[in-house]
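Minutes, project check-in
Item: structure for the 193-residue chain
Input as provided by the requester:
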Amino acid sequence: MQLNLPNSLTLARIVMIPIFGLVFFLPVEWAGLVAALVFGLAAVTDWLDGYLARRWEQTSAFGAFLDPVADKLMVAVALVALVAVNPSPWFAFAAAVIIGREIAVSALREWMAELGKRATVAVSMIGKFKTAAQMIAIVMLLYGEPVLGLPTSILGLLLLYIAAGLTLWSMIIYLRAAWVVLEGSPREPGGES
């Protein structure tokens, strides 16, 4: 493992996860603001580590593995924390769609990589829009206070529903792209669970 700046930023994002969880549940007035700042910083490092790795030609197998893991962990922890304090069925549904898709698409990409077909399920533009929508939504929901008279909680919830819709759309695109391989690959004995 080469510890360069992009990989260091990814590791820093993983370190932010328990810090985020601790801050979010602190019984203090400023918890929402600081949790939103920590999550926002993690979102910025998500973009920055990939940009720097490509720009400085410091991409690595370790970074390619760890970066999506860090992203999915941070989003899952934030969504579960938000559902814990906003236990509405629709909020929980949107969170479950987003988390479930992340797990399903990650498994699909891993399996396709084993078959040498990872490019078939490469990140799409819809996936990038989905990521941007969910990151902004989560920051707004974490902060929760009006900004310039705008109700960030309501806007964040609407954006989360949009992100959930884009999540389903992008998953359908990935599954359709992989369907030819999924349909034609032989099943291994005992491979079903």
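Outcome recorded: Confidence is low (pLDDT under 50) at residues 189-193.
No further action items on this chain.
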